[in-house]
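Entry type: protein chain
Record version: 2
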Amino acid sequence: MIRTFACLSLAVLTAAACSPAPAADAAPGTVTPIAAAKAPEDVAGARAHVQALYDRYAADEIFSPFGKPAEWFDAEFVAALKAADAATPEGELGAIDADPFCSCQDPTGMKAVVGEAVSTGPGRAEVVVKLSWDDPEHNRVRIELTRSGARWRIHDVGEGEGGMLAYLRRYAANPDRASWD
């Protein structure tokens, strides 16, 4: 018991000695740079970006985020999209033949419940959206986002390595053999 108390006391003293002292001129309640660095990632903006996307779907039956990709996607996704478009043979439909945000070709009547954003690393977040139409069955769409400055943008949509970003890259490399598998 005494040994446990002594070890615990030593650990507390060591942690206190290794911790930086608060700035002498810091006002009470001021967040120091070290405290700010340890603060959890603010991902509310990531969720708001996804919510705005699905709000546009609800308000406009012909909306597509691919019409103005820089408004919705990060630079890496936009570059992959442009590369896939450039690789599309003349007269062909192209890489995108269905909407990955609804896993459908027609989002009319879609109802989306945007989940909470979860930080997946510095400047990265993930949001899961549950989709339904007039039936009780739900689809899930996983959206990865990155932050560029103060703005969040979509980095990928889909599951793991099989997401849309990977698909666009495969398509750009070989449009005849691209597939989701």
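Comment: Residues 33 and 39 are 10 Å apart (CA to CA).
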